Each structure stands twice: as C-alpha cells, then as structure tokens.
C-alpha cells in the first residue's frame, strides 16, 4: 500500500531534523482528536487554522507601538507577527528544527493582543481581577474564543509555544524557543526602525556600544543576532546567545524601554486609549446583553468581567474607537 504525502513528510522529519526537534507524528495531540489529513501534518494544519481565523485577520488593525500612524510603513501587530515568523523560521531551518511547528506558533503568538498595543494590555490588566496577559489571552483565543467558543483545536505543542512566547514560563519545545527569541529580535529592530522614521529617535542618539556589536543597520542587527543564536545553539537542547551579543541586545532593549516604550512622548494618546477602554469596560459590565452572543455566553460560564475582557481584547483599534463614539459621543459631534 502506498503511503500518503503526510506520512512521507513525517518520515522525512525523522531523517532530516535534529534529534532535539519536535516531530509531527509524536505530537501530544489535540483536546479533541480528528482524523489525520492525507496531505498535511498536524503542525501544518495548525498553521493553516491560525491563518484562516478571525483573530489573525484583526491583527492588521491593531497597534504595534505607534498609535494611528499617518504613514503607510509603520508596523502593525500583523506585520510584527509576519516578521517574527520569518526570523523564527530562519532559526528553525538553520538548527534543523520543525519549521511548520515554529511557523504555527509564530503566527498565533499575538492573537490575544489588545487594541492599542501594550497600552491596552496594561489597562485590562488593571481592570480584570486576576490580571490580563496577552500571551495567556492568545492561548485562550485558540482554545476558547475562536469558532464561536469551540476554539481552533490546535495541538498541545502549538498552544504551549503560543502561551510561553513571553512571560515567566518557558516553551516546552525548541521551536517555541525560536519564536520566543524571534519575538524579541523582531520587535527591538522594527520598533527602532519605526521610532527613527517617526523622528522619536535620531541616528546619533542610538547606543554606540551596542551598535558596534550588533551592526549599524536594521538588516545587520537581525543578521548578527540570528547568526549568534545558530552558532551558540547547534546540536544543543536549548537556544542560547553568546554573552557579548546578548549583552549588546539587552543594552539596546534597555535603551528602547527608556527612550521609546516608557518615555513620555505619547502620554496624551496613551491617556485617551486608556480612557476609551475603561469606559467600554464599565459600559459592558453594566450592559452585557449588548455584547455579541458568544461573549454573553462566556459571562455565564466564566464570569462577567472575563466575558467583557474577552470582548474588548478582541477589538481592533478602530473598532474600539468607533464603539466608544457610538456609545458616548452625541451623533452630531462624531467625526468618522
């Protein structure tokens, strides 16, 4: 009997991948078993499920760092996700890891991010009892919120990698580690690029000691970090960086937090975003019946605040702003 395309792919994984790679045929499986596909492995199916879900499409209208930028070339949460996927897949290929699993995790890692970027995350973290963390919400999206409450039914390895791409926990697979490393590489470099484009930073202000190690251009810095991880991690059970490059990357990260992420240049916009989300949270806690039915059901099962937080975190920037206008701004005063 001839084997299927999927079985041939799974056999190739045993022949070609590193002993430390996650193989699709050895997955810990899904919460609800499904018949195997003749063409795609389980990790390939997970990647496709993420790409086709509603939460993925909404990423194009969610803020990365710059709120409502006028230029066409600033990153959004979607373009950030694609850049993370590219870096993570490059790492996985160089280290002979499972690219399909890596890509599925990377494409899903920020599905739970709020409108208005980390500003929105901070607001919901303050409002929701027990706190709000976007990495945990991303896992909740794929397990609970998509498909009207059925979730995407992804494999355990993808869900684990999504949750542990940031935060205190650590991924169970090297593919998850690739995404965790790629996330930091991508956001540090593209946020720096956007900050220069916006005039928030000037070239001469960048930390010279970090650039001497990492490189003077966007491409050089990414190349340095990727090459260093590959050199330090080949045939090892965990990913690592050399002390020299990691120190330079951490120095650049500290600079970005001081001058871009935490600096006061966007305080007025942050206050407006915070105000919008707080107003919407209060309104829907008082009028939960005005939310879509799927979120009303969550309030019965998981509590009122949880259902409202799920609804708000799924909003795009523009939808949250329009909903605020619809609820709180007299119609004659609205500007669309």
Summarize this structure as a short list of keywords or feature phrases:
single chain; 336 residues; 16 helices; Hypothetical protein af1432; mainly alpha
How much of the sequence lies in strands comes to under 5%
- The helix content is 55-70%
Count of DSSP H/I helices: 16
Shape, per Cα inertia axes = flat
CATH T-level fold name: Hypothetical protein af1432
CATH class: Mainly Alpha
Span between N and C termini? 63 Å
| Mean pLDDT, all residues | 94
Write up this protein.
- The chain is an all-alpha fold and 336 residues long.
- The protein has one domain (5-267): Orthogonal Bundle (Hypothetical protein af1432), CATH 1.10.3210.10.
- It contains 16 helices and no strands.
- The chain has helices at residues 5-16, 42-51, 54-58, 77-94, 99-108, 117-127, 134-145, 156-163, 174-198, 208-214, 218-233, 243-261, 267-286, 293-302, 304-313, 317-328.
- α4 crosses α9, α4 packs parallel to α11 and α5 crosses α8.
- The longest helix has 25 residues, at 174-198.
- The relative contact order is 0.12.
Topology readout:
Elements: H1 5-16, H2 42-51, H3 54-58, H4 77-94, H5 99-108, H6 117-127, H7 134-145, H8 156-163, H9 174-198, H10 208-214, H11 218-233, H12 243-261, H13 267-286, H14 293-302, H15 304-313, H16 317-328
Helix pairs in contact: 2-5, 4-5, 4-9, 4-11, 5-8, 5-9, 6-13, 7-8, 8-9, 9-11, 9-12, 10-12, 13-15, 13-16, 14-15
């Amino acid at each position: 009997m001839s084997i299927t395309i999927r079985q041939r792919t799974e056999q190739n994984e045993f022949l070609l991948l590193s002993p430390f790679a996650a193989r699709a045929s050895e997955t810990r499986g899904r919460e609800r078993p499904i018949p195997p596909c003749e063409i795609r492995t389980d990790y390939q199916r997970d990647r496709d499920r993420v790409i086709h879900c509603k939460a993925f499409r909404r990423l194009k209208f969610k803020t990365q760092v710059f709120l409502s930028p006028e230029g066409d070339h600033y990153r959004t949460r979607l373009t950030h996700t694609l850049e993370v996927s590219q870096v993570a897949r490059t790492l996985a290929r160089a280290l002979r890891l499972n690219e399909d699993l890596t890509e599925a995790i990377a494409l899903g890692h920020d599905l739970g991010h709020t409108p208005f970027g980390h500003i929105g995350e901070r607001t919901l973290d303050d409002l929701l009892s027990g706190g709000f963390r976007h990495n945990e919400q991303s896992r909740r999206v794929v397990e609970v919120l998509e498909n009207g409450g059925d979730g995407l039914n992804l494999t355990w390895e993808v869900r684990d990698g999504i949750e542990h791409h940031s935060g205190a926990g650590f991924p169970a697979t090297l593919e998850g580690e690739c995404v965790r490393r790629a996330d930091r590489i991508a956001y540090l470099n593209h946020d720096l690029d956007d900050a220069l484009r916006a005039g928030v930073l000037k070239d001469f202000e960048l930390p010279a000691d970090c650039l001497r190690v990492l490189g003077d251009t966007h491409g050089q810095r990414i190349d340095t970090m990727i090459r260093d991880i590959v050199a330090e991690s080949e045939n090892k059970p965990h990913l690592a960086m050399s002390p020299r490059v990691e120190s330079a990357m951490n120095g650049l990260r500290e600079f970005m937090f001081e001058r871009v992420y935490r600096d006061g240049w966007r305080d007025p916009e942050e206050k407006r975003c915070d105000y919008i989300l707080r107003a919407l949270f209060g309104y829907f806690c008082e009028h939960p019946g005005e939310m879509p039915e799927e979120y009303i059901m969550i309030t019965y099962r998981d509590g009122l605040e949880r259902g409202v937080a799920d609804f708000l975190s799924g909003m795009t920037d523009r939808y949250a702003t329009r909903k605020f206008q619809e609820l709180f701004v007299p119609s004659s005063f609205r500007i669309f």
